[in-house]
């Protein structure tokens, strides 16, 4: 499996323990419904050892473009407009994003793995873990 296998548009089809994660992350409740039912578009390209990951709402309201080298810490811009230190790796078909400080003093670990037309994102922050499940849009 290649890192570009997560390319494309994905729509949230389910979640596990997501509200607890949003609480832990300090996300205001007025944003929860959109996050729980929203769409995401992931575009991945690779040029040599540099990878570019574009994450966007499908309505175009929020977009973040990051170019990085796998395994090297860099300043990752989120679709919330905030920049955080992060390290991204890809191994065994799993894209892993580690953020030592999510802006609230807590470490965030996010993994994305595709199986057919399903993209599963698993997250951990503090004592909370859960999943977002996307279907190919």
From TrEMBL:
Recorded GO molecular functions are: lipid binding
The record ties this protein, via SUPFAM superfamilies, to: Lipocalins
Cross-referenced CDD domains, in alphabetical order? FABP
Q: Which InterPro entries match?
A: Calycin, Fatty_acid-bd, ILBP
Residue span(s) of domain Cytosolic fatty-acid binding proteins: 8-25
Q: Which family does it belong to?
A: Belongs to the calycin superfamily. Fatty-acid binding protein (FABP) family.
Xref: PANTHER family: FATTY ACID BINDING PROTEIN
State what protein this is by name.
Answer: Cytosolic fatty-acid binding proteins domain-containing protein
